[in-house]
Amino acid sequence: QKIKPSFLCYFQLHSNSDEGDGSVQYLLSGEGAGSIFIINEAIDRFTNRAVEPESEFIIKVQDVNDNAPKFPDGLFSASVPEMADIGTSVFQITATDADDPTYGNSAKIVYSILQGQPFFTVDPKTGVIRTALPNMDRETREMYSVIIQAKDMAGSVGGLSGSTTVNISLTDVNDNPPRFPQKNYQLYVPESAEVGKAVGKIKANDEDLGVNAEMTYRITNEEGATMFSISTDSDKREGIISLRKPLDYEKKKAYSLNIEGVNTHLDPRFSYLGPFKDTTMLKLIIGDVDEAPVFTMDYYIMDVYENAPARTEVGMVTAQDPDSTRSKVRYSIDQNAEGDALFSIDVDSGLITTTRSLDREEVAWHNITVMASEIDNPNLVSYVPVTIQVLDVNDNAPYIATDSTLVVCEGSKAGQVIQTIRATDKDNFANGRFTFALPEDLPENPNFTLKDNEDSSVSVLARRQGFSQAEQELYQLPVVVWDGGEPLLSSTSTLTLRVCPCQRGARTPVCRAQAFLSSAGLSTGALIAILLCVIILLAIVVLFVTLRSKKSKKEPLIISSEDIRENVVTYDDEGGGEEDTEAFDIAALRNPEAAEEMRIRKDLQSEVWRAMGTEALSPSLTLPDEDIHEVIKLKVVKADRDTSGPPYDSLQTYAYEGRGSPSGSISSLDLPELQSELDLSKVDSWGPEVQILSRVFQDKGQQHSP
Fold first, then answer.
1. What burial letters (b/e) apply to 521-560, b meaning 16+ CB within 10 Å?
2. What is the chain's alpha carbon radius of gyration, rounded to the nearest angstrom?
3. Is the pLDDT confidence value at 189 over 90?
4. 343: left (phi over 0), alpha (psi -120 to 50) or beta
C-alpha cells in the first residue's frame, strides 16, 4: 500500500554483537531503503565491517479506508420510452474505489438514489437505473435529473461516498389521438374560385412528435366530397381544401363538409387509448360574384348555302347573365378570329348573317368566335366557338383532264377499249353521277367511239383496226360530259390520242421505245453518209487549228517588251465620234514587221480587182460554175482589203456550196425497184411492224404503176 510521508512506522532491531558501546552501525538495503524505510547503522565503526550477515525482512502494509468511490467524469444522459412498464432498464452507472477490495470493506460500494424518486430506482449492487412508476407521460413531463450516490464500506456509517447526475428523458410514442380545436368551422368562398385551386385550410392538433403525429384528412360526406377535395400538407400537418367543380351562387349558396383527421402510424400497444382520429364540420359559405354571360351551348355548328346573297341568315347564338340582376347582353364577333370579314352578328339578338356571297369550293368550313358581354359591365366577356359549313350547290361544270395523251396501239382492233377515263367536278358528288357522249353537232367519228359505263366513267373504243403511226400519229376526240345536279351542267373536253407501236405484255398500253433517227425515216446509207461528213469536218477543223498554231509561232504578235501596243492611255475626255476614228490609224496596232507584207498584199489585191472590173463579189450569183478554190481566193482578197477588220488572223465563213459532184447521189431512194415474190395478202396477221412495211411497198407500187 501507498505510505503517506506523514505516516511513521517504528521497528526495533538488535544484533547480539552489539554490546551497546556504540561500535556497531546498522545498514538498510532493498526496495524502499533510504526513502521509505531507514535504519540506524549496524557495522563496526572501527573496522567498517559487518558485525553479522545481512538479515531479510518482509514488510506488509495494511490498507485503511482512505479513498472515496469515484464516478467517471462528465454528464450522463439516458432515455426511455414514455408509458414504459415498471422496472424497465434505463441506464447502468459504475463507480470505482482505490482501496484494497481484498481487505475489509474499504472498496465495497453500494449505490443509492439521492434524487429522482419515486420515478426511478437503482440497483444497490449493479448500479442499473430502472423505472419505478407506470404510465410516465412525455406530454406531462419529459426530462428527469437523477442523482446517484456510491458509498464504500458497504454503505455503513463512516464509509466514504461519491455522487453523479444522470439526465433521463422520455421518448415519444403514439399515445395521443389527433384533436380538432373546434367542432365547427365556417369558411367564405367566392363563386369565382378556380377549379383545382385551394380555397381553405384546416388543422387538427396531435401532442405526439414526428411520425407519431402524422395524419391524413378526408371528407366523409358525399355532398362535400363531390364539390371539394382535401389533401394533407405533411410539413405543416394541415388539410388543404380545394375546389373540385365550379361554384354557382345562384344554384347553391352553402356547403357542409364533414372532415376527419386520422393518425397514419398506430401503435397496437396503445390501441386501448383510441380511436386515434377526430372529426369536425366545416361550413362553406358561397359568395355572390358578378359573372360573365353564359352561352346556352358550349359550341355552335351552323350551315349556309354557297352563292347565297349578302345578309343571308346563318344562325343565332344565345347567352344570359347568370347573376340575379340578369343584365342585358351584347354580342360581337372576335376580330382576331378567322372569317370575321365574312360574317356579322346582331349586337342585341345574336343573329349571325353573311356579309357577302360564299364559295364552297374556295373554303368549305369557317370558324368564328362570338363574344358576349354585359351592358352594365363590359369587362365581363365570355366566348363561344361557332363553326359554319358552306353547303354545296351545282355551280361548277364537270370536265375531263386533258393533260395526258391516250395511247392507241397500232395493232388495236375494232371495238377494243383504248382507255377508261373519269370526269372531275369541283362540286360535291352528291349532285349525281356523270354522263358522257360525243358532240352531236359534229359528224360521226370514223376512228373512235365512247361507251358510258354508267359508273361515272367512260371507255374510249377503237372503231376500226389498222392504225398506223406513219399515216397519222395524233388524233383529237372531243367528249361532252354532264353532271347529275340541278341545274344540269356540262362541258366539252378534247382528248389527244397518240398512235404508236406498243410494248408486248404490258397491262396498260405503253408505247415502245424507238430510235430517234429511225423515226425520222433515214436509211442505213444515209446514216453512213452523215457520219462520214461529220468525220471529214472534224478532220478539217483539227488541220486548220494545227496550221494556225504553227503560223502563230512563226509570226509572234508581240516582238519585244517595248511594243507600243502595251501602252494604254486613259483619259476622261468625251470622244468625238467619227473625227476620232478618222484621226486614229489602226495600222499602229499591227505587227511592224508584217506591215510591209500587208502592203504587198494590198498591191496584189488591187491588181486582182482591176482584172475583175466592176463584177460583183458574191460567188453564189456571179460565179455559179467557178471552182471553190477561186471563190476562197476572192474572199481572201476581200478580207485583206477590209481595213476596218481586226489586225490579227480571224476565222472567215464562206457560204458557198460546190456543185457537179462526180460521185453522184448515194441515196437508196432512186434505186430501181425490185420485184417482190412475197404474198402480201396475209400481211395483216404478221404484226404491226410488217404491216407498216407492207403499206410502204404498196404505196411504192402505186407510184410506179401506169
1. eeeeebeeeeeeeeeeeeeeeeeeeeeeeeeeeeeeeeee
2. 67
3. yes
4. beta
Strands (E), 102-253: 110-115, 120-122, 128-131, 143-151, 161-171, 184-190, 198-203, 215-219, 228-233, 238-243
Residue 368, number of CB atoms within 10 A of its CB? 22
Q: How many CB atoms lie within 10 A of CB 10?
A: 4
Decide if 498 contacts 406 (C-beta within 8 A).
yes
Q: Is the pLDDT of residue 24 over 50?
A: yes
Comparison of pLDDT for 378 and 555, the residue scoring more: 378
Beta bridge pairs of residue 96: 70
Burial 82-92 (b: 16+ CB within 10 A, else e): bbbeeeeebbe
| pLDDT tens readout for residues 412-434 | 889 989 889 888 888 876 556 88
CA–CA separation, 231 vs 217, rounded Å? Answer: 7
Strand partners, 184: 281
CB atoms within 10 A of CB 475: 16
Assess whether pLDDT exceeds 60 at residue 704: no
Average pLDDT over residues 161-165: 93
> Which residues lie closer than 8 Å to 88 by C-beta, 6 or more apart?
80, 130, 131
Q: What are phi and psi of 486, to 5 degrees?
A: -130, 110
Please provide the average confidence, as pLDDT, over all residues in the chain: 79
pLDDT at 483 over 80: yes
Collapsing DSSP states into helix, strand and coil, what is residue 104?
coil
What grid cell was written down for 538?
A: 472534224
Residue (of 247, 251, 220, 370) closest to 301 by Cα position: 370
CA 482, CA 397: separation in Å to the nearest integer? 8
Work out the end-to-end distance of the chain between its first and last CA atoms, rounded to an integer number of angstroms. Answer: 172
The count of residues in the chain is 706
d(Cα 428, Cα 190) in Å, to the nearest integer?
53
Q: Which three cell numbers stand for residue 383?
A: 366566348
Closest CA to 181 of 207, 203, 150, 149: 203
- Report the C-alpha gap between 24 and 10 in whole angstroms: 19
Backbone angles phi, psi at 89, to 5 degrees: -65, 135
Cis peptide before 275 (omega within 30 of 0): yes
Inter-residue contact 334 to 369 (CB < 8 Å):
yes
Please tell me what DSSP assigns to residue 532: H
**Cβ atoms within 10 Å, residue 563:** 14
